[in-house]
Write the structure tokens for this entry.
Amino acid sequence: MRPRTTGEVDLDTSVFRLDGVTKRYGDLVALDNATLDAGENEYISFLGPSGSGKTTLLRVIAGFEAPEAGRVFFNGKDITNLPAHERGIGFVFQNFALFPHLSVIQNVSFGLTHGKSGLNAAEIERRSLEMIEIVGLSGMQGRGVDQISGGQRQRVALARTLTMQPKLVLLDEPLGALDANLRGRMRNELRAIRERLGVTFVHVTGSETEALAMGDRVVVLDRGRIIQIGTPGEVYGSPASPDVAHFLNRFNLFEGKLAKGTFTGPFGAVPAAHAVRSDRDIYAVRYDRMQAVDPSAPVSGPAIRARFVASEYLGSSVMNFFEAGDGHVIEMEHHLSLGAPQTFEPRQDYLLTWNPEQAIVFGREVA
Amino acid sequence: MSGTVTIEKRQSRTTRWLLAPGIIWMSLFLVLPILMIVYVSFWTQTTFNISPEPTLASWKLFFSSDTYTGALWTTIRIWLIVLACTFVVGYPTALFVGLFIKSKTLSTILLVICVIPFWTSFLIRVLAWRPMLGKEGAINIVLQKLGIIQQPIEVLLFTELSVIIGMTQIYCVFMVGPIAFMLSRIDRNIIEAARDLGAGFGRIFWKIIFPLSLPGVVVGAIFVSVMVLGEFATSGALSGRKVNLLGNIIITQVGSLKWAMASVVGVILTIVMGFVIAGFLRIVDLKREL
């Protein structure tokens, strides 16, 4: 894996490129002028809420949908008008779409047997068995696909696509149909398989943890627009807009007003030295940067009075939920590695405070 | 432990109660009559009387008479032809209704349209073919007016052809329904996946769509077979009594009070149907597929 510090890709190693792709369904704009570059041997996650256009974008790249405007390039060629099966792009469906009446190996070899590979039966079997071994299903090739578990079906779907040796594999919410435990394991497996084969994966997900954990780069979508492209660290550390911060589900967002380097919100006026340009004035503080103290205790930074509602034990950390005067829920995460969690009295008021230098300020007025 | 036993006991008692009406009904009105028919087929038949002395006379008569064995072969031939015709006409229709039409509402409407002829009685549906196929029927008139033929086509009515046409029309929908149902259950993503893997339409049809619709074909074929093998009305009304099926023989024999011979034909027909159904069920494991 090459280190990547920005969202830019060298054009000469670009595997696919979207240029101003727009797609409408009636009045609904599913994709609005999407432009994106993807390099060789890369794991890209598309992150967005449902209806953000991430699946549409994937289907446009695959060739299942035709865009109204814009071009799609793959391997340096314009493939906008090429039918799906001539693109050489693999697609793994959300529900796996395995052929239910065929065995594991018949599923995996389907493309080689019935496509235009021109290989003989022995070669097809050799390649299929090799791919079955890569995805970790050795010995299962004779089973019917209704006799294997969900995670194994996921591997069959992946192997079926990978035997065609695509340079680009599109995965539509590949882990959505699996239970939580399996999801974690498949996450590592998908990365490992990808690194072994050196193929570019594009992975669509609605889960921010999945996108951050798996992507070399994360593409955040909202209402048909790409609103941020960057490494997981960039996206997590400096979200480009309040919407991105919202999707990451890791920030308390406060509305207010930014004027002359000062943000005025429900917690009073706080100096804001740096601000990110945005169409709204929003003050964002990460859950794990919040601290709760007794209301009578002295605080140095900004603070907001809120009532403790409930807490949730997450294994490695504890989430505490507070409610501010205006009904706004504020979340505070305490990592247990930092020590035993504080205990809070239900329906008691506390002061929530944070270091203003760690907050992210979005505003129309940027100093 | 005692709790488990009670629950099991209660469950088995419930099972017995639920099964009882069906078992009683089937025993009284299916198993018993069939046993009776088998028994009667060995009775001694005289011109005006029948007595329960056992004899093989009726069985010997059946297999030594060309009329009776001929009817057996005609029945099997018409059954095979009608089965093939309903499949050839029905499968594309089902493919269109069940797979190509994306809207569920529209495909339901089309299936209902297929069933509309059933709103009239069976006999009317059969007899309506006479003014269509007759020497001065609709088809001959139209073809003559168009100048395609000079003389009316006479083979259209009161021949084996007219029986086949009539039966195909009447039983086609029993083929369309089950196949369309199986086709509509196919996940569209599977077809998209097969296309994405480079398979052409022909390959996708033969390797994916057809195998997945096979249970529907088998159910449809069983429906059509059972009904065609037991047919007598269509052949009676559209063949001018020239085509005699086993069903027609039973009707005539019962009409002349030849119960023993009617029973022989009935037993043979039941055995044929049994083999046909068993044969179809060997093709697919319906319990697993449906």
